[in-house]
Specification:
alpha+beta; Glutaredoxin; 2 domains; four-stranded mixed β-sheet; Glutathione-S-Trfase_C-like; transferase
């Protein structure tokens, strides 16, 4: 059985949401980051960055929420959370799956710290560009790949919910509000929110 190492009120919510969407059995292993449990050698063997979430699935172990989402969606294709490798949608799926950690999170750090980074050297371009690009993509909806909900929506939905609703770091836009509402209406999202709240 898969074991998800998690902590309340953390980025673990993406992995919890994904696992709840799959309907697969899994065990949640509370990893109390307030006591430094994520720095224990046995946990560092799963995620050497000492962050949550982490996942063990038999002999496989990995960290990083987007990587966990990608791994589970591919390892368990019956869940329908990822286009097949031969599907042309796979390219956009991968792009959007990693957009949250590659662009949204750095853009939020830029906004929070008011850090001036030239868009020509910032991997995410700029905060404005990040959210403008996402806004344009979400107008095609209802999901990032059109009619098909995927693990990419879990990463994007978690990132936008965090940025727009929880911490109000990004002003709401009609496409963001509608997308977050669609995500929040999913029973798996609601279960994940209750779990992640501790």
């Amino acid at each position: 059985m898969m074991k998800l190492y998690w902590s309340p009120r953390s980025r673990s919510i993406s992995a919890i949401w994904l696992l709840e969407e799959t309907g697969l059995p899994y065990e949640r292993v509370l990893t109390d980051i307030t006591t430094g449990a994520q720095k224990a050698p046995e946990y560092l063997a799963i995620n050497p960055m000492g962050k949550v979430p982490g996942l063990k699935d038999g002999d496989a172990a990995l960290g990083e929420a987007a990587a966990i989402c990608a791994y589970i969606a591919d390892r368990y294709p019956e869940t329908g959370l990822a286009p097949a490798v031969t599907d042309p949608l796979r390219a956009k799926y991968l792009q959007w799956l990693f957009f949250s950690p590659s662009c949204i999170e750095p853009a939020l750090i830029q906004l929070f710290t008011k850090l001036e980074v030239p868009s020509s050297t910032a991997a995410w371009g700029s905060a404005d560009q990040t959210f403008d690009v996402l806004d344009a993509a979400l107008h095609k909806g209802p999901w990032i790949l059109g009619e098909k909900f995927s693990a990419a929506d879990i990463m994007l939905g978690s990132g936008l919910n965090f940025a727009v609703r929880m911490f109000k770091m990004v002003p709401p836009r009609p496409s963001f509000d509608a997308y977050i509402d669609r995500c929040a209406a999913r029973p798996a999202f609601q279960r994940a929110e209750k779990i992640a709240a501790g």
